[in-house]
Amino acid sequence: MSNHPAPALGDLAPRLTELSLRDAHRLGRRLEGARRIRKPEARAAVLAEIEAEVARAEERIALRRAHAPAVTYPPQLPVSQKKDEIAAAIRDHQVVIVAGETGSGKTTQIPKICMELGRGVRGMIGHTQPRRIAARTVAERVAEELDTPLGEAVGWKVRFTDQVNPDATFVKLMTDGILLAEVQTDRELRAYDTIIIDEAHERSLNIDFLLGYLAQLLPKRPDLKVVITSATIDPERFSRHFGDAPIIEVSGRTYPVEVRYRPLLEEDGDDADRDQITAIIDAVEELQREGQGDVLVFLSGEREIRDTADALNKKNFRFTEVLPLYARLSHAEQHRVFQPHTGRRIVLATNVAETSLTVPGIRYVIDPGFARISRYSHRTKVQRLPIEAVSQASANQRKGRCGRTSDGICIRLYSEDDFLARPEFTDAEILRTNLASVILQMTAAGLGDIEKFPFIDPPDHRNIRDGVHLLQELGALDPAQKDPRKRLTDTGRKLAQLPVDPRLARMVLEADKNGCVREVMVIAAALSIQDPRERPADKQTQADQQHARFKDETSDFLAHLNLWRYIREQQKERGSSSFRRMCKQEYLNFLRIREWQDIYSQLRTVAKQMGIHVDEQDAPADRIHVSLLAGLLSHIGMKDVKESKDAGPGARRDGGRNEYLGARNAKFAIFPGSALFKKPPRFVMSAELVETSRLWARVNARIEPEWVEPLAEHLVKRTYSEPHWEKDRAAVTAYEKVTLYGVPIVAQRSVDYGRIDPELSRELFIRNALVEGDWRTHHKFFADNRRLLTEVEELEHRARRRDILVDDETLFDFYDRRIPDHVVSGAHFDSWWKRKRQEQPDHLDFEREMLIRESAEAVTKADYPDSWRQGPLKFRVTYQFEPGADADGVTVHVPLQVLNQVTDEGFDWQIPGLREEVVTELIRSLPKPIRRNYVPAPNFAKRFLDTAVPMQEPLTTTMARELKRMVGVPFTADDFDWAKVPDHLRITFRIVDERRRKLAEDKDLEALKLQLRPKARQALSQAAAASAERQGGESVERKGLTDWTIGALSRVFETRRAGQPVKAYPALVDDGDTVSVRLFDTEAEQAEAMWRGSRRLILRNIPVNPAKFASEKLTNAQKLALSANPHGSIQALFDDCATAAADRLIADFGGPAWDEESHRKLYDKVRAEIVDTTVRTVGQVQQVLAAWQACERRLKAVRSPALLPNLQDVRGQLDALVKPGFVTETGLRRLPDLMRYLIAADRRLQQMPTNVQRDTTRMEKVREMQDEYAWLLEQMPQGRPVPSSVLDIRWMIEELRVSYFAHALGTAHPVSDKRIVKAIDAAVP
């Protein structure tokens, strides 16, 4: 055995109990290690080292004891009377609760009581305060009472300031947040032998956290003493939390306070409906009668304070000053409250004056009973600041404010019943806060599960869930990780190191990726303090003007950055006092700016330690906003378009115009103070959503929705709709909708569906690409299979049967059995087939037998031909069996260039295969009395077709004749009703171009001709041009002709185009000053155009203008008579006469000429007589116009309202007979008739007033004929010239008028309504 004495271990261990806690713990662990050393020599060496360290530690502790300051107690403080009782309790118990009102002295004296007990030597006395200002002022006070300089025996530490000397400090004042942060590095708080938690009744988050942590720690640290001080609000709750720890009550220095209840609505009062401001003024007036003393009024917010201050100032109370007091006021304005003054002062304060600040000299309190209390809303996941009734405890705190120096009066603006019905205490902050920060710190500190943590009031599990969700949103916690110790992600670990809110910390981390750390840290620091821009109540406009230069139209965040840059510039240029003055002048809070810079510096220091690179280059705004967005993913919003549309005219005031849809269906509006308020963008992110009268987004920026998805991959929900085959991509795609917390980020994006649902994608690929053939591919099997299917389908279309081709399911099963599961698109198929076809080329080939269900021999080419002949023309015929489709049935393909040659002839007979069905349906369409003689219709149809010769005449004509012969019942072809024949039995005409592309299709051939007339003309022109090119000559069609230079003009133009015989009719066309040659579809159009073209060519070449010549022959009186004409000018009238004269002469000399020689002869004859004929025409027209003018005068003279319809009839007649161009339109031959019609109209007007009834009866008969004639014109082929036989009927109606209204004048030929009807019937096409 070794010579070294083993008891040395036993000797050292007791000595450790006298060392500092840290030394004892450290050396104790080393002793444990030494115990395990086997070799005696080695153990002896280690023990010698430990003994030396123990000796040094004993010296340190002795020195520390010697420097303990002497303790005295101010006798006037209530705590001093109870110091022995408190000391005994602390000595005998591990935890003591000291309850006493503000002013009892507990805060300053308890650390001294602990020192007197010998505490503070082995470890410091840690003393926490809820506020930084309190930590400093208490430290100053205690140091002063102990007569030691601050920072020695009494130190203090708050964020950014550390005045603690570990070797010399006995009492360390700090904020509760500082102690909380120390837990991470000093798990068992061995720096302290005593901990005092002051103002514990405030129940802030940090206080609750410390109390819970201490409850866990005490069993491990039996030497640790804990003193909890609280106002007299529910100290029992703390006692219970620490196993019924003793409570020592210390009364405060208070005077009696009288409470008066003055509810707003007093039942027996005169003013039954007063508002809060009136009630406050009433209370102030009541208190003025009570004597001197200041008044403290509690209000819920700045706006209420301003409104109340305005109302009080208007009252002009004598020797009275009104002062606001709220957190956002500048320090100077806050400080005014504490300065000495004369007269009465009315302080209007928020609940900041309840416990935090003691306003001196207050004798009276007015308490409306409300406050804004920060509350976390589960629904919107935002911190709200609603106005709520305060608890009884808060109301009593308010009351206690006026009993500090003398008796006081508290007027409550609510009833006593209301007071008694209120909750006893305000909820602890933990019950109304987002716990993300706490959960993050707890998780980082390894304090286990928040739900199992011993809180005094365990937080609502919903709040815990929201906190966890926020951390998951920020990527700090991994929801998939079940072990709480492993849930913290790398991001979470980094977030916990940054000394700001987790949202802000997340922004900084993202900024590191985006190269904008400096800017984002500036903004994050700004968001973690109160806004340094001040808006004093009386100088808001000036403040706003000063701050406007920092504004950015698209982002309130950039305003912070602009302000920061400005501040930095000013600080460089100015001295410190000059800079302070500038801040004051420009409404900037110097202390908050300093705090902002401190947080930034601290962030920068921590960031550097974490390896985050701070770039000195300015970063683009987009990158900054993307980084900020990383922390604000649940604070995005999309403009609610529906809301904006629904909003009425008053919407702007309510913010309806800028209503946004936010996360979890919350609706918010941009706060009026935001730069984005006037021009709200489509998407925004907001740093804070605060609910007051509504949910407001306060600090905002415009964002692009595409920024969101990469940041929120772990949060977005993707839904897919309408999976469909896309031919161009040869894949199944679907529309993806991406939402984040219900806000649509991507409304509709086409994505490959194969990876999302391979099974459905494979099915859709086989059905669409292979079964339906909707695929562009060069695989041989595919083309062969499609060709085989088309052949079999064609049989079905011809026979109008659906039972020949096998169904799609058979084809699907064929492919399904042969194609492997992984093939979900064209690309997958190609790579598989490349290998497969080498082994088995016919693996996917169809066989004809597998496609045909039964024999299709009944379908022959004779019954279902491929082409249709009409004269020299031959048309392709196709079949479609698709009921309901426009082209269901037989389709005849008509090339555009022969459209003018095709007639309806024969198409009513249909193809032989469908003819029997057509005849059957036509028999069924007969009127019932006739139809019943032809039953059953199919039998009569068969009999008819056995005997009839097809295509010789219209089908219905043959049927009427043959069926009448069978039964003997007479009827006509008009009795058949084609409208009742099913559409598929009527031929569809498809007009195609030279490449067989469809231009139009319809059952009505004439309608197609009209619709495609311009294109048909163009096709004819192209055919003529191509023909001329082939023959090497000029085209038939010409332009700009001024004389006949075209040789002979053939009456028919024929050529071949695309295998079809093209036929057209050339003619001269009047183009105004020149003529051209154009091709026409029909001879009728040719004749009309040729006449006008010839006339233009002759007239333009006559050297003497006949119209001018005729004009010169007239006297001025005659010219005056002719000036009243419908043409608008005498010259236009003469031109009309000359044109009519030319028409007469051309007709007299045999009409237009078709070759140059004939044209010259015609020209010479017309030229010789045109002037005389024009002069004679003018003479006749002069008489016509005289008759017309007489008629017009008489028409205007008759004014009887009873005759209005009759007069309108005459007006219509005159406008139709005498109008611009009437001479040419009427023709010289009819001018005498026109004269007669006008005289007849004049006579009718003379007789009309004497026999209205007779005139009306005859007028109605004429109208009847006019309607019949109008109907006839509608039947004429549209766009074609109206035949002269039809135009003559119009003149028959004029003759009918003469026979009715001026019989004595006589008619040109016998006329009656029956003759006119007969003529109309004969003219129907």
TrEMBL record:
Broad enzyme group: hydrolase
CDD domains per UniProt: DEXHc_HrpA, SF2_C_RHA
Gene3D superfamilies per UniProt: 1.20.120.1080, P-loop containing nucleotide triphosphate hydrolases (3.40.50.300)
GO terms, molecular function: ATP binding; hydrolase activity; RNA binding; RNA helicase activity
SUPFAM superfamilies with a match to the protein in the record: P-loop containing nucleoside triphosphate hydrolases
Alphabetical list of Pfam families matching this protein: AAA_19, DUF3418, HA2_C, Helicase_C, OB_NTP_bind, WHD_HA2
EC number: 3.6.4.13
Residue ranges occupied by any Helicase ATP-binding domain in the UniProt entry: 87-251
Reactions it catalyzes: ATP + H2O = ADP + phosphate + H(+)
Coiled coil regions, renumbered to chain: none
The UniProt record lists the keyword Nucleotide-binding: yes
Annotated keywords: ATP-binding, Helicase, Hydrolase, Nucleotide-binding
Matching InterPro entries: AAA+_ATPase, DEAD-box_helicase_OB_fold, HA2_WH, Helicase-assoc_dom, Helicase_ATP-bd, Helicase_C-like, HrpA_C, P-loop_NTPase
Start and end residues of each Helicase C-terminal domain: 276-446
Similarity annotation: Belongs to the DEAD box helicase family. DEAH subfamily.
Protein name per UniProt: RNA helicase
Taxonomic source organism: Streptomyces cadmiisoli
